[in-house]
Each structure stands twice: as structure tokens, then as C-alpha cells.
Specification:
The structure is a homotetramer. In chain A, helix 1 packs across helix 8. Helices cover 26% and strands 24% of the residues of chain A. The radius of gyration of chain A is 21 Å and the shape is globular. In chain A, strands 1-2-3-7-4 form a five-stranded antiparallel beta sheet, with helices on one face. Chain A has a four-stranded antiparallel beta sheet with strand order 8-9-15-10, covered by helices on one side. A two-stranded antiparallel ribbon of chain A has the order 5-6. Chain A has one domain: Chorismate synthase AroC (Chorismate synthase, AroC fold). The longest helix of chain A is centred in the last third of the chain and has 26 residues. The first copy, chain A, starts with a strand and ends with a helix. Chain A is an alpha+beta fold. Chains in contact: A-B, A-C, A-D, B-C, B-D, C-D. Chains A and B meet through strand 1, helix 3, helix 6, strand 10 and helix 7 of A and strand 1, helix 3, helix 6, strand 10 and helix 7 of B.
């Protein structure tokens, strides 16, 4: 269950303080000359947290390409890549070895597997999202050739500087728009474009909500308000409004695909918190180390990456099935 | 893409006015004596729309069990079942054969496949959700033996009677709670319990939003407010609050799983609407026929059904992987 | 595990003496006008056993098409179909209810599931191969439009009439040839064209061996004998010989695909045999009922059907991945 | 299509002369202390070719473990590993850059992908089987705890020393036996234990035939000869003979699982051969470089590895489905 996608598939691996983080992309079309500069710039977007403290983890994020390429051109074989974990100060976490940080995955991982890598969140660390950005960048490159653009932005966020001062953190909402998607992508029953997006977005750590088009607001509307009237615009059938967010019956209708993703605040706060350890004893902890006040700025590129991967994947499925 | 689930799998088939609607459940444990009375009662919940007009479609919903059972006991082989479509008045839809109803899937299906069954929405009809209720009822029976209960309810809905008078429709929100789920279900990266639920819920027609725990509200909270403090309750580790909705790091933490699903209003409204036909000509339509004012009352059992299927599926995955 | 195929997928259901046998084909391209006459003729090939006794089961094999079609044209939605089991004389099997017939699946099914449908072999009956012929016929129709032909024949078989007299049965070998497959089908590592064929052929009851090209004979050859020399034939690169059976490195090379499938004799023999029952008591049985002397004549169309399904599936995968 | 397995899954990556060869094992149970010495000894079995010339490739085969482990114990997260390609003399292959070696995958890869890594066979190189040995070793360790043993051996092979002198190569047959498999593994219709084995074995380069139990010989037998009589042996039901090779109806019956795999001769021969290049021009080539006379000695451990992986995978599926 560390693989996502049907035809354009990404398998990721790695723990925060293990030897490396990486992924294997299977199903990428051959003869694509990778734009490494673009991939690096996407990784840079992920790394840059505008509300960072100086103590934040130094991640060089230098990708090593292990397979699938000949002179930078895809072979059609699996593209494996990794980034070594250089700056993992596991001693920061030693004190938390037996303690379950509130709203982190420490407790659930340990219960599920009977063991967990306690160093920096292990597999549950946000660092493990790096391979998604790489795969997303490649997917974007594929989409670019088809004039499909993806852009996400933070549309709502708590007061980060205020929160920092109080040793607190904030959440927020990211909105994403995919422009240029052809009509007809998405499988209508159990692989709806919206369902695939939902699944992908909920794979991002800290995501707790997802909505397409007007989303939850549609629940308060009347049909006469919510319906998107079909019109003939210069010979092309489209809709006057886009309450549906570009997806009807699970299938893209040619309009912009619009969705929003809700992130809870980062659970690692500097304020003292009460919790328990493995033995059930009550503890008071204050999480130090290198943590962001808000995941949103980093999350924007993740949202785009998954959106790109889903779009490529659904496009390949549609191509496969056409007569 | 008409199959959902990893180990407990449902494949559905059928169009609104085709010969039959049905499904095949693959991976259901053997030696389970099916509670047919319970399955029928669940189907009854789906059928009963409390705001129905008298002209609503008469669906006998008489299930024919085709395979997988011996004297009502599961064999471990695929359980196929169907309901014949008796009362399909396709003439009601003849006038809409070439017209794209606003916010329906007529246009997208036709663009995707180059053909569509125009009778009653075809494959996109809400009638095709019937097999989900059947599979969900069986999943609930499996969960019941493990003391896991699922209950959904409408927590927000527009004014239906008011809407009916105006030939309009309303949407709303369904909240669901799964009680008794053990700690450790859900795969942590791409098969998170929350992601699997999201995918399943977005497979229900008209769903436009999904949130877990406090969901979108978490985006406005601070970490100190959103975190769920771990406590030792009579020797069992649990959390004081449940903002996370029972899922942390994608894995169940033993608390109640709580989530909400937003439904847009039913797009079939009696009010006149403008739209276009296949040739792009503008039309004025008023959708008659047998339609609900609100899908919510029928949707409650669907939400529960998918929740049950996901829980069984994740439970089986967890069992498979344990040492 | 009752589904085969990646993009062109067949899910089958049904037991020998249950209510119905059938299947769901998911991923079939839309706008295909089904040739029902051809499908019936393929079913007829399966039914006709040239060495049959008069007491053989009367199977009307009247297909009911449940979904996925509009006026006989595929909609792109799942094509469900079934054949009702009319002539199931389960009393013939009453005596064998607690007995494990030698080299049948009675014992293994019962151990696996803790329950089995003892009537006519249940899910393990050869009757459950009927849906494969239907899906295979549709796959052949798709291939026909691309000028790909498939033909299998019995190339080796024991002396059936001799065996019948002695209450015995015989096995044999079916050879199949796929002509016109383009170069490049098959995934090179874990979805080799040969591996997909092998998996499919071993899904036919009684199959115990499979070889591609010169197969086992290649194990006795030298490299200089076994290699297929590339030549330029009228501007097209092909091979002088075809020891490889049209597949190199798991991928089709444009030559005929040739493979053979070995079938063990039907285990139901009239001769008295010793066996045990559920309690481990030794029994002497003589299997009466309606049984063939040899499965080969019926199996030819099954081999072709699976070959067609694999070819369509691999073709769709190749199409999906092309730039 | 570079992933094999349902629950115990291996994804492999790498080309012969790329940066690294490796794999990701997903679904391995947690809390398993890996026996690295055993893994190395298995890799050594793969490396040692008893008929090697001194010029054979020096492969240090030093595994780097990238993820999924904490102090050598499995975490339940993906286990990624790789071996860097140190000794890749790609200049050896420069002359073959545009030439299609007979019975190699050069031609088919290039036609499929429009590009190929010509250095040492690229992805089609036997070197890419290394990750299978690693995953197989871990699977064997899991099986060992359940007292399941796997042993393969060469049962037929051409005269290697004779072939070497003539610049030729030989093929052969490997037989494998799995002892201690419980009754009930294997899915009965499309995931038969035999079908899963067949698929896995055909994933080994150069494999052209596969048979279970008496295999092709069964095609010449009568039912009365081929049937395995059930007996009660000290209170346990088993079979007197094992013509079925331990699998009946696709499900293990508790007897030894026995199967044979036919390998064609290695196509790289020193003798001069005729072939064509990309432009269709006829060439005479003599393949130098470092090649084995026979793949069989190296293949034994591969056959065992896949057998182990299939057994673990089927065991996990069975566990998941049990009540």
C-alpha cells in the first residue's frame, strides 16, 4: 500500500531518519527528456517554508537517479530515485522514544506494527512526501505538452507569526485549479476523477477535508442555484457556471477542475502538552526540534503534484480504453 | 473501474433501464450465514424517501442471488446478485434523448464513450447504488460479529417541502460514526483509512465534499486547540478529545471514526432550465418524471454501506499482514 | 481473485448447480456492436464434445445480457451476462457429498473454505468456464478488427474410444497460434506476454503444463540451434525461424505467437477407485453421472478465449503507455 | 508492470549498466529480524556460475538497505534496497548499439519503447534478477518459521563444457519442490497456486516452459493412472501418489508442491551469427564479452526465490480471508 496510481504509478519508500527517501515511478511513457531543472525547482518549492525558524532541518534534497533513464531520457522502464538523509539528528527525538506525541502517528504506528521508527516521525514524517513532488514534476511535464496547467495556492490560513510567538501552529486551506483537462477523463463509478483526487489528497499528511467545486457550500444550495447551465460557446459546449468544479458524474466536463484541501495545524507545538508513554504513564512534553509553524506553504506543491499524477493516470486510462 | 476494495471487493453492473442492476462480491469470508432479512431492511432504507411524490418509481428491489451461497451460507466463492429493472418507463426520457440535462452526467458520458444510455440516466442513475447497499449490509453483518457499529444521519439539509413547492431540490450533509474499530486499521501512506473512506464516499452520486473529524474546521484552529491529548483511561490508552475523528497518520486510533459527506442538490428540477442538445442548440427543459426533492434520506444507508465495506477491507488487510 | 486482466477485465461467478453461471466484463471499449451469432457459435464449440455419451448434461447455454449494452452496442460500462443452470441433477452427487473424489478439488476446497458446494463440483466445475468463452468471443471480435487471428487445435490426445470402453479418460495437448500481433505487446518484467498467457492458461481446469515456442524442447538445444536469426524481409525486420514462439524478452516480436497447453485426463472415471470421506474412512467409488472422456475438444475454445483476452489486454496496456 | 505479488509485493528497478539495480518490498510483515548472512549467501548462489570464464563480470553485489528497517528489524514499511553497478564495461556493447542480437530483447524493447538502453541488455539483462533473490531470501525466512522448505535443482542440462569449446551455449530444466505447505493455499479461479507460480517463473529470463506435478507427461496418461488416490495416513488425509504436484483445483493439498521450469540456451554465443541492424542491413556478429555458457546454475536460486514469494503471498491472502 505504498503505491498510488493505476497506470502511472508511484511507489515510495523511506523514513525520516533512515538511509534514504525515494520512489519508483512505473508506467512513465518512454522518450521523455526529463527537465531536471524544473524538478529541482519543484523540490525547492516544497523545501521553502516561509515561516521557518533558522533551526529548520537542512535538506540538500540532492536527487540520485538510479534507473530508467539514458542520457536523461526515459526508457519506459521504472524510474527509481532517492535522496539520502544527511542531516538527521535523531538525538532530538531520543526523549520521545517511548512517548506518544498528541495527534501524531506515533501511537497508531506502534499499535499497527508492534514497532516504529521513533526518529523524526519515521515513515509518517512529512519528509516522506519528497518523492511525490518528484513524480508530480514529471507528471506536470507530461501535462505541459498537452497544454494542461495546474496551480494551487493557500486561500485560508491562521495567523502564523502570532502562533509562532505562542509556540503554537496553524492550519489552512489550499485551493487547486487544473486548466485544460479534456472532456471525458475519470472512470464513472469507482474511479471517478473526484474520488481519485480525494484519495490522493488524503494521502498528504495532515489533510482532514476535501471538496470539489463549491463543495460543502453546495449542501446549502437549491438545485436551481447549484446547476451548471450548458451553453454553446463559439461552437463548443461548456457550462455557464462551474459549481461542479469541472466534474460531473465523476467525469471531467472540460471546465476547470477546482478543489480545496483542508489541513489541520501541525501537531508538533512548542507549548507544553500532556500525553502518555508506552506504559500509559502521564507525561508533560514540549516538542522542540525543527518544526514549521504551518505546513501550508510546503503543501501547495504537494497538492499540485498529486493533481498532476491523477490527471496523467486518468488520461492514460482513457487512452487505453478508446477504440 | 467498476470494482472497489482490495480484499473485500464489490464489482457492480447495470444501467437504470437496462435488464438488471447487480453486483459481484469477491473475497467475502466463507461460512457466513447471510441475514437476508437485514439485507432487505437495508434496501428498504434506501428505497424510502421521506419526501417522495406518489409518482416515484416503484422498485420492487427483489434480489436474486445467483451464486456463492449454499443454503444461505457463503461458500467463499463470488456472491453474485441482481435486481431486475421492472418499472422502467423509458418513454419519460425519450424527450431528453439528445439533450444534456444541467449538472447531470449526460454530457460527460457521451463525450467519454461516444454513446450513452439516455434512459433514466443509464449507468449514472442513483439506481445503480443498490448493489452497494447489499454489499454494505453483508459487510455490516461481518462487523457486527466484531462489535463494530456504524450509524449515519442527516445533520444538515435544505428546506425540502419549501423546495418541492417551487419545483426545486435541496442538498445537505450526512455524518457517520463507526464505533468499535480496533486500533491499527488503515495503511499509512497510500491506503490511509481516511483516503479509502474519501474514495468510497466520492463514489456516491452527488457527493462534493468529505471531511474527517473536525475537518474543514481544523483549518481554522491552532495546534494547541486541535491536538487530541492522549490519556490513560482505565488502563487503555485513548484520547481526551477526538478532533482527529479516530484516525491519526491514516491509521485508526481506537476512538470513534467520525466523518461528514456533503451532497449537492439533486440536479433534476421541475423548474424550467436552459441547456443545449447534442448539436449545440439551446433548449428550455423542465424535468418531469419521478424524482426526489432530496437525496439525503436515501444516501444515509449508502454512506453506512461504504463505511462498512472499507472497514471490513482494511480489517482484512491488517489481518493478512500481521505476523 | 475471480477477476482476470488489467484493463480488459473479466470477473466470473457461479457454481455448477447454483442458480446461474456468469461474468462481468469491465473495460470493454464502447461502441462495439456485439456479434451475438459469433458468441453463440463459440459457446457451441465449447459445448460440443465429440466423444460425448448421450447422458451428457443438457446445457441450453442461453445467455441473458444484463447490462452494458444499448441495442446490442457496448456502452463502455460493465457488460454483465449469465446463463441459468437448468439441468442440474444434484441428486447424482448426493452420494459424493462427504467423499473426496480423487484428483478433484473436493478436498482442497473444503479445507480452504470449511464448506463446499458438493453438487457437481461447485465452483470447480468445468461449467464455470462458460463466461470465459463469452469474454473470449468479444475479445476475438475486437482483435478481428485489427486483423489478429487466433486458432487452437488438439495436437496430441490419448485414445478416447478405447478409454471410454474401459471407463477411463484421457488427456492431451492443445496448441495455439496467434497471427498478426504487432511488435511490442507485453510488459517486460512482471507482465511478460508469455507470463500473462501462462497465468491465463493455468486458469483452465486440468491444465498442468504450458510452453511457448519450442518450449521444453529448447532445454535440449544449443544456443546456435535455438536462436532466431533476424532477417530483413521486404523491408520488414523479422526472424528466419520462430523457436521463440513470437516472444522475446517477454515482448511480442511480430512473429506468430505459438504455445502449447498440457491437460491431464479428466479425473472423473467410471472405473472403481479408492478414496476417503470427510471422516477419513476408506471408500470405493465409481463415478457415474454425465462426464466426458476427454476435455480437449471442449478446451480448444477456452485456450483461444484466454489467448484473445490476454492479447486485447496487453494491447490496451501498450496503447495507454504510448506517448 | 514492474511489481509482482498481491500482498507481499516486489517492485524492481534498474538496468544492467545504469546506476543501480534494486527493489522495494511492500507488505513484508513487521518485527522480522532479517538474516543478512542468509541473504548474502543466496546472492552468492546466484553469482556463482560453475561454468564461468575468468572474464565474467565482477559483481560485488553489496546491498545497500535504504529503508524499512530499524536495527535490522522490519518496520512494516517498504523495504528498499539497491546494489550499485560498479563494473559495467559499456564499451563492450558499443559495437552492438544499433544491432539486434538474435533471440535477445534488443529488437522488441526498441520497438516497444522507441528507445532502449543498449548497454549490456539494459533492463532485459539477467542482472536485473538480483532483487528477486533478495526478496526471495526474505520470503524464505518467513517460510522457515512455518517449517516450509524450498529446494530446486538442475535435473537436465546440455553438455556445457562441450558447448563452451564450440562457442555455444546450452539450456536445461530446473525442478523445484516446496515442502510443508499447508492445505488450502491458492485462489481457485484466477489466482490458482499453479497459475501464480507459472506467472512468476515466466518472469525469469529465458524461461520457455513450466509444468506442475507430472505436467506434460499427464497428457499421455489415462485418468486411472493420473489420479491421486486419497488415503488416511495416521489420521491425516493425504494422497498415495503425487501426480498433481501438490495442487488440485488450483489449491494446495498438503502434499509436496513439485514443478519444473524449462530454460532455453543463453542466446549470447561466441559463434558468428547473422543478424540485422536498425536500418535492416545484414550483419555478421560474434558476441564477445562476459557470458555464461548456461544460465541454469544461476537460475536455481531464482526459481526458489519466486516459489518462496508466491507461497508467502498466497499464505497472506489465505490468512486475510479466513473468518
Amino acid at each position: 500500500m505504498n503505491t498510488i496510481g493505476h497506470l502511472f504509478r508511484l511507489t515510495t519508500f523511506g523514513e525520516s531518519h533512515g538511509m534514504a527517501i525515494g520512489g519508483v515511478i512505473d508506467g512513465c511513457p518512454s522518450q521523455l527528456k526529463l527537465d531536471f531543472g524544473f524538478i529541482d525547482s519543484e523540490l525547492h518549492r516544497r523545501k521553502t517554508a516561509q515561516f521557518s525558524e533558522s533551526s529548520q532541518r537542512k535538506e540538500s534534497d540532492q536527487i540520485e537517479w538510479l534507473s530508467g533513464l539514458l542520457d536523461g531520457v526515459t526508457l519506459g522502464t521504472p524510474i527509481a530515485f532517492m535522496v539520502c538523509n544527511e542531516d538527521g539528528k535523531s538525538e532530538d527525538y531520543e526523549a520521545l522514544k517511548d512517548v506518544y506525541r498528541p495527534s501524531h502517528a506515533d501511537f497508531t504506528y506502534e499499535q499497527k506494527y508492534g514497532i516504529r521508527d521513533w526518529r523524526g516521525g519515521g515513515r509518517a514524517s512529512a519528509r516522506t512526501t519528497l518523492p511525490i513532488v518528484v513524480a508530480g514534476a514529471i507528471a506536470k511535464q507530461i501535462l505541459k505538452e498537452k497544454n494542461i496547467q495546474i496551480a494551487a495556492e493557500v486561500v485560508s490560513m491562521g495567523d502564523a507569526e502570532q502562533a509562532r510567538k505562542k509556540g503554537d501552529t496553524v492550519g489552512g486551506i489550499v485551493e487547486c485549479r487544473i486548466v485544460g483537462v479534456p472532456v471525458g477523463l475519470g472512470e464513472p463509478v469507482f474511479g471517478k476523477f473526484s474520488a481519485e483526487l480525494a484519495h490522493a489528497m488524503f494521502s498528504i499528511p495532515a489533510v482532514k477535508g476535501f471538496e470539489v467545486g463549491d463543495g460543502f457550500a453546495l449542501a446549502q444550495m437549491k438545485g436551481s442555484e447549484a446547476n451548471d447551465t450548458f451553453i454553446n460557446k463559439d461552437g463548443r459546449i461548456t457550462t455557464l457556471t462551474n459549481h461542479s468544479g469541472g466534474i460531473q458524474g465523476g467525469i471531467t466536463n472540460g471546465n476547470d477542475i477546482v478543489f480545496r484541501v483542508a489541513f489541520k495545524p501541525i501537531p508538533s507545538i512548542a507549548q507544553p502538552q500532556q500525553t502518555v508513554n508506552r506504559e500509559g504513564e502521564t507525561f508533560q512534553i514540549a516538542i522542540g526540534g525543527r518544526h514549521d509553524v504551518c505546513a501550508l506553504p510546503r503543501a501547495v506543491v504537494l497538492v499540485e503534484a498529486f493533481a498532476a499524477m491523477v490527471t496523467v493516470d486518468m488520461g492514460m486510462l482513457q487512452k487505453a480504453g478508446s477504440v
